[in-house]
Amino acid sequence: MTFHVGFTDSHEFSPVNMNYPAAHIHMLPVELLQHIFLLVVNDVPDCPSVFSYGDTTISPNVGSPPLVFTRVCHFWRVISLSTTAVWSRMQVSLPGRVEPLKPFLPSFLQSWLARSGNQPLTLRIVSGELPVRTTRRCMRQSCQEPSQADSQLLEILLSESKRWEAVALAFSDDLNRNFDTPELKSLQCCWSELSSFNAPNLTHLHITYRWSLTMRFRHIPTCDNVRHLWVQNASARIIRSTFLMFPRMESIKVDLILSDIGHPHNSTTHSCLESITFPIPSDPFQQREVLKIFDELHLPMLRKLTFVADPEESEVSCIVAALEIASCNVQVIDFQTTTPLSEIDVDVIEPLFSLAREVTVRGEVLCRPVR
User: Fold this and answer.
1) In this structure, what DSSP letter does residue 44 have?
2) 41 with 83: CB under 8 angstroms?
3) Pairing relationship of beta strands 121-126 and 164-170 according to DSSP bridges
4) Quick check: 144 and 161 in contact, CB under 8 A?
5) Which residues contact 18 (CB under 8 A, 6 or more apart)?
6) How many CB atoms lie within 10 A of CB 121?
7) Which of 14, 70, 139, 359 reaches 20 to 30 Å from 195, CA-CA?
8) What SS3 state is found at 308?
9) For residue range 176-185, what is the model confidence (pLDDT) as tens digits?
10) Cα–Cα distances in Å, from 78 out to 14, 49, 52, 200?
11) 6 falls in which pLDDT band (50, 70, 90)?
């Protein structure tokens, strides 16, 4: 962080320049105040919002960080406006209105981006904040096309796409845009948007929304360097497809495993995968999907399996069956469960000790029962 304002003593920024001692808040070192600003901004969930929305209105979000810093006093305003990192995280909510925005709002977004200097950008884009007014033109417009207001804001954001470092797209529809993002390292989007990104340095990918069970997969360069994949929900067939699509993947996490009549028939090898996090359903019929994932799966580098499940007899039997039809050298099997450690039946999980070096519950090591 660089402080570009030509003042060395915060005392002269005191609201009242008299012989009284300056308030302690005005005596803080510049670097400490900048650090406080960054802590506040980084603590905002989902990034600080650029705009504030009413029922039918949109305006600058002046009541929240970082804009609120500029309204405390002249000293804080100077510091906050000159600290580029404070402006490098933002959430832009697209209004969804067909009619264009008044010039002030696009200019305000451009000003926010300008204050971030050359900092890498962390960006969250959310759609549909305002109700759409139904007009003949709106009815003729394709539901897949962004509105005029959305397009205005998107074009401004796209002009800085080469600085995008972490991006989350929260949409139910496609944007029909191409994104040139050479510095992008972390991305959250739906599957259909992934092919729109030119992101050779992408390492963290979070796929949201349902994956189509009939989806046909094709290789795209953006997948080549992905190391960590998080999928909201997917079937066994789709999960097996990811092993081919992401050749350098080191970890995969799936929140929900879907049922699918299809079955992956081919033996699959993935030479980089080290960690897997899956749920284990309690329903035996649903557990068959887990077995489909591991059938003839060769994972020479796999070290840790994390299961979001209670360590009950049915779940343990499913895990044992899955590892018997796969080829791997698991070191740790971990259960993420709400069951207290004192209530875990070690006799139930005993079969897992012959399959892994350690069995843990939320990271706490369980001792093998002595016979």
Assistant:
1) S
2) no
3) parallel
4) no
5) none
6) 24
7) 139
8) strand
9) 788 999 999 9
10) 13, 21, 23, 37
11) very low
Q: Smallest Cα–Cα separation from 365: which of 275, 323, 344?
A: 344
Comparing 32-46, 93-107, 155-169, 232-246, the range with the smallest average pLDDT is: 93-107
Instruction: State what percent of residues in the chain have pLDDT above 70.
Output: 83
Rg (CA), the chain: 26
310-356 confidence digits (pLDDT tens): 999 999 999 999 999 999 999 999 999 998 888 999 999 999 999 99
Whole-angstrom distance, CA of residue 325 vs CA of residue 319:
10
Confidence class for position 133, pLDDT limits 50, 70, 90: very low
Tokens of 327: 């080829």
Q: For residues 231 and 211, is the Cβ–Cβ distance under 8 A?
A: yes
Report yes or no: 257 and 289 within 8 Å, Cβ to Cβ.
Answer: yes
- The set of residues, in sequence order, having a beta carbon less than 8 Å from that of 92 and lying 6+ positions away, is 50, 51, 109, 123, 124, 125, 126, 153, 157
Instruction: Say which amino acid occupies 51.
Output: F
Query: Strand runs (DSSP E) across the chain, as ranges?
Result: 51-53, 58-60, 89-93, 121-126, 164-170, 179-180, 186-190, 197-198, 204-208, 228-235, 251-258, 268-269, 275-279, 297-299, 304-308, 327-328, 332-336, 358-361, 364-365
CA distance 173 to 127: 9
* Distance in angstroms (rounded) separating the CA atoms of residues 128 and 143: 12
Measured CA to CA in angstroms, residue 179 lies from 266, 267, 274 at distances of: 34, 35, 30
pLDDT per residue as tens digits for the range 147-162: 888 889 999 999 999 9
Q: Which residues sit opposite 164 in a β-bridge? A: 121
User: What is the length of the chain?
Assistant: 371
